[in-house]
Amino acid sequence: MSDHNQIDRLSTYHGGCHCGKVRYSVQIEKLTAINCNCSICHKKGFLHVIVPAARFTLLQGSDDLSIYTFNTGIAKHQFCRHCGIHSFYRPRSHPDGYDVNLRCLDDYPIDLFEITTFDGAHWEDQIDRIHDKYS
Fold first, then answer.
1. Considering only CA atoms, which of 81, 76, 89, 75 is closest in space to residue 24?
2. Report field, pTM of the whole predicted structure over 0.85
3. Which of 31, 37, 44, 56 is most exposed, with the fewest beta carbons within 10 Å of its own?
4. Could you report the per-residue pLDDT of 5-52, keeping only the tens digit for each?
5. Residue 133: pLDDT band by 50, 70, 90 thresholds?
6. CA 75 to CA 69: how far, in whole Å?
7. How far apart are CA 77 and CA 85, in angstroms?
């Protein structure tokens, strides 16, 4: 495990879906991720890394994406229409940013990240925790 007291700096990672049709690059400042227990994140196994839109670039596959929405319809859960993998999406908590799945980054850098839990099953009562820490 890395030392999380280090000074945060911008690091570029690449990621994508299972079949490789969807690829992106993302610049991450803080090596932190969120493990959410809401109904969709729990089922997908999504580990959230939230970044501003300017730090996310879709490199290929825009025509290979489908979108799933539910509840308020604000979150745009994008996934590859070929392999079904949800490698990133536009989150309800940060609709002007992107949320990439740590598990979908190349070379699986999960050990470099500090992972915190978020009680998304009680989203309305807990959302300020994400806004305070990741905005």
1. 89
2. no
3. 37
4. 444 589 999 999 999 999 999 999 999 999 999 888 889 999 999 999
5. low
6. 6
7. 10
Place of tokens 């740590």: 102
Strand partners, 61: none
Decide if 68 contacts 106 (C-beta within 8 A). no
109: amino acid identity, one letter = P
Residue type at position 65: L
Rounded to whole angstroms, the Cα distance separating 20 from 116 reads 28
Bridge partners for 100 per DSSP: 49, 88
What domains can you pick out in the chain, each with its CATH number? 11-130 (2.170.150.70)
The residues that bridge with 23 in the sheet, in sequence order, are 16, 60
Phi and psi (nearest 5°) for 125? -80, -15
Q: What's the gap between Cα 81 and its chain centre?
A: 18
- Alpha carbon distance 73, 71 (integer Å): 6
Q: What is the DSSP letter of 21?
A: S
